[in-house]
Amino acid sequence: MMDSLDRGIINHLQGGFPICANPYAKVAKQLGTSEGELLARIRKLLDDKVLTRFGPLYHAERLGGGLSLAAMKIPPNDFDRVAEIINRMPEVAHNYARDHALNMWFVLATETPQGLQNALGAIEHETGYPVFNMPKVKEYFVELKLQV
């Protein structure tokens, strides 16, 4: 169960992370705790799977890379096998099930545009199913902050 400090950490860090010599110390001071306590709390939130990820998000295309949303139609009896293959690929940012004909969706981020094509090909080869690649046409920014 989360306490007020856990909630404060999550709520505070959704707004950004300081770029400075000692960012954890700065955040800890803002939250009225110690750097060690902050780091221990973040580790516990990750270990307990309250948070699934803690780290920066990069705009792969601006860095010269490739980025795309992809979907697959996977028979229910083969879903777990395919999910395991996709989830172990470092290019996959996240993967999730949908109640739709295309029932597996994931985001790919690669260092190069060709890396994106290579990853899509590898997924098709390893899983035996086609991948529907849906690169973005236009980008929209929706700032979503979930207060806990």
TrEMBL record:
Reactions catalysed: siroheme + 2 H(+) = 12,18-didecarboxysiroheme + 2 CO2
Recorded GO MF terms: lyase activity
Pathway assignment: Porphyrin-containing compound metabolism
Alphabetical list of InterPro entries matching this protein: AsnC_trans_reg2 (IPR040523), HTH-Siroheme_Decarb (IPR050684), NirdL-like_HTH (IPR053953), WH-like_DNA-bd_sf (IPR036388)
Gene3D superfamilies the UniProt entry points to: 3.30.70.3460, Winged helix-like DNA-binding domain superfamily/Winged helix DNA-binding domain (1.10.10.10)
Every Siroheme decarboxylase AsnC-like ligand binding domain range: 68-140
UniProt EC number: 4.1.1.111
Keyword presence, Lyase: yes
Keyword annotations from UniProtKB, A to Z: Lyase
Siroheme decarboxylase NirL-like HTH domain: residues covered: 6-51
Pfam families xrefs: AsnC_trans_reg2, NirdL-like_HTH
Listed PANTHER family: SIROHEME DECARBOXYLASE NIRL SUBUNIT, TRANSCRIPTIONAL REGULATOR, ASNC FAMILY
Family: Belongs to the Ahb/Nir family.
Protein name per Swiss-Prot or TrEMBL: siroheme decarboxylase
Organism field: mine drainage metagenome
